[in-house]
Every structure is written in structure tokens, then in C-alpha cells.
Design a protein that fits this description.
It is built from ten helices and ten strands. The chain is α+β, with helices and mostly antiparallel strands. α2 packs antiparallel against α6. The chain starts with 5 loop residues before the first strand and ends in an 8-residue tail after the last strand.
Length: 344
Amino acid sequence: MHPNREYLRTPMDAASTAGRFGRDFKLAARLQAQDLNPYRARVPVFLVDLATKGSLTEPRGLHLRHSKLFNTQAAVSAYEMHRDIEAFEREYKPSNMVHIVLRPAINLQAGIGEQMLLDEGGRCPISNLRASQRAFNNCVQRAIAELERRQLLVPLLVARHLRPLQGGESFDIHAHVVVQMEPGNGWDAHDYLSKIFGSGRVWTSSVMEPGETCSFSRTSNYPVWRLANQDWSEVSNENLKEFFEQSSGLRSVDALGPFRDFRAGNDPSSETAAYGDGDHSADAEEFYGDASRSELPRAKHRFESRGPPRTPRFGGLVSHAGGLGAWTVSRIRYWRVPAAARPR
């Protein structure tokens, strides 16, 4: 979580945040019971309401280390990403949106000649989680880059999900990629991806649900917000500890192509585009490392030249719960202050 950032909140948002903090601190207590330190510092965090000039505060406990386990951290990234998605959509109005879901090939390996990382059902044992995620990320990067080179799509966003199975003994690893794709390119892209990842390991909205339409924001909604609503309660203590250690530094979500360029030029959200919602280690791979990619005017021309959009598999099923409606809205800011110095 980034301190000193402003957010627009509603009572519904506040209730969701309180629930996430409660669940996160239960997970932190379980980690601490196994001799792991889940806290970045022993300085407590308070939520300070700026609309009341600090007269209202909410205690948030100790500052947690960045981890995929903690939904409160993913929620901050999701809020900022969602805000930028809507801003990008207002300015460029991208059409022909397609949602692609990819799972790693059954024969996924960390390197040529090395052992298989997945079991026979395509699930990832927790002992191979870090190696599998990094190898899968590299495969997705190369595949999407090749489809972009062939001018079959324009990538905009990728979200990487790790869904625990059997108490965390194994994981369903998959990636949601949001792209812009002309209607006639769907089967060509789907067939290419199926050759890379295997039959049944690729889902393409324009192929599976032809004729549907959806906006960029709705297409991106599920992949982004699912990261902030993952249930870890059924994961065993032993596997929880293993996941906490193995997932450190693995990226969850990235803006791609023109959307990445847009975010980089619009502070303050560009920091989230760079760091995601987890520890960013020096060896974490960039999805696209070439900073010289398409300029915005050229990107805008490509967006405006597209035809009617299509819809993702999950379009419309998941929506941001924090709509303003009739709620009273106040601006708040996350501050980290010593207990003795907090507003009273």
C-alpha cells in the first residue's frame, strides 16, 4: 500500500476495506505463528479522513509487508488501475475488445531439458509455484509479442491469477490478457495460442462468444478486481507459509502497449503500473521492456480505426461495488503515524 495517496471512498468502499483488513490481519497472525514476520514496521497505520480535517480516524493495525496474500494491497492497485482504465477509455474509446484466458502448457519447463513443473492435470504443485509462474510469464510474453508483430492484436493489460486448490497443495495458474482485435483475427490468434499452450488451455472471447460487445473497462474489470478478492482461508498453515515465501516479487498485473504508455504519462498512477501489488525484486521480469514502443497519437489512430467491440467471458458479471450513488463521499488519505502522534 502506498501512503499519502488520495482516494475517493463511499460507505460501501469503507465496509469492503474493513473486511479486507480483517481477513489480512488474520492471515498475518497465522504467518507470525509460524515464525514469519508479515509486517514491514512496528508503526501502526491509521486512515485519516481529510474531509473532517483529521477529526475522524480508523486504526488499521501494523503496516503489512507487500504480498499477494493481502487483498488490501491488491485493492489499492485495483482502484488506481480501474481509474486509469476509465480515463483511457474516455480519451481513446478503444473498440473490438477481446478477453483471452491462458493456462500454461502441460509440459511447462523452467528450461530446456529440465523437469516438468505441472502435474498431469495441469495444476502447479506449490513447490514449483515460483518457477512455474516465471516460466509461464515468459511464454505469455513471447506469444503476445508474436501476435502483435503479426498485427493480429494490440495488447492493453495482463493480470496473472494464482488460485489455490486442495488447501494450497497445488494452484491453478492462468493469465487474463485484454487486447484489441479486429473481428476477422479471432480464430487466427486462437489457433496460434492453442499451438503454444495446448488444446483446451486457451479461451478467446471473440471465438467462444462471437457477436457480443463490451467496453475496455468491463473487459478488464474481472481480471483486475479478482486479485483483490482472493480467498486464502482454506489454505493450510504450512502451505500459506510456503506461498508467502515463493510468491514474493511475482507481479500480478501490468498495463501493456498503448495503455502502459498512457499510464506512464499520467501520474500518480504510473507508480502502480511499475510495481504492481507485490514486492518488486530486481530480477522480476518486465512484460514489455521496450520503452520506445508506440506513441500515443499513433495508438489513438489505431484505436479509432477499429470496428465494433466484442465482449469478454466475464463482462458484466463482476462490477465495481463502489459506485457513488447517493452515498456521501469524502476524500481520505493513508497516513502512517506513531500512535502517540495520531489525531484525537
